[in-house]
C-alpha cells in the first residue's frame, strides 16, 4: 500500500468491528460526522482505534488479523 495508501473501506470495516461507524466511505476517503454533543470518551475511542490501525499497518499484520 505504499504507493497509493490503504483503501478506506478496510479502515471503515476495522472501525465498524470495533464499534465506530463512519458516516461515509469510498475507495480513497472516509467521513466522520462529529457533533457538539459528542463527548470526549467517544473522540478518544476514535483516536485510539486509528492509532491501533496504524500500528497494525506498520507491523504489516495480515488482513485476517486486522479484520
Task: Tell me about this structure.
With 67 residues, the protein is mainly α. The protein has one domain. The chain is 49% helix and 6% strand. The protein has a two-stranded antiparallel ribbon. Strand 1 and strand 2 form a beta hairpin. The chain is globular and about 35 Å long. 4% of the residues are buried. The mean pLDDT is 87.
Which value, in Å, is the CA radius of gyration? Answer: 12 Å
Mean pLDDT: 87
The spatial strand order of the largest sheet comes to: 1-2
Q: What is the straight-line distance between the termini?
A: 17 Å
Q: Largest sheet, described in full?
A: 2 strands, antiparallel
Strand content: 5-15%
Low-confidence stretches: none
Question: What order do the helices and strands follow?
Answer: HEEHH
Total domain modules: 1
Q: What is the approximate shape?
A: globular
Helix content bin:
40-55%
Number of helices: 3
**Class derived from helix and strand content:** mainly alpha
Number of extended strands? 2
GO cellular component, one term: cytosol
InterPro entries: Orn/lys/arg_de-COase (IPR011193), Orn/Lys/Arg_deCO2ase_major_dom (IPR000310), PyrdxlP-dep_Trfase (IPR015424), PyrdxlP-dep_Trfase_small (IPR015422)
GO biological process, one term: amino acid metabolic process
GO molecular function: ornithine decarboxylase activity; pyridoxal phosphate binding
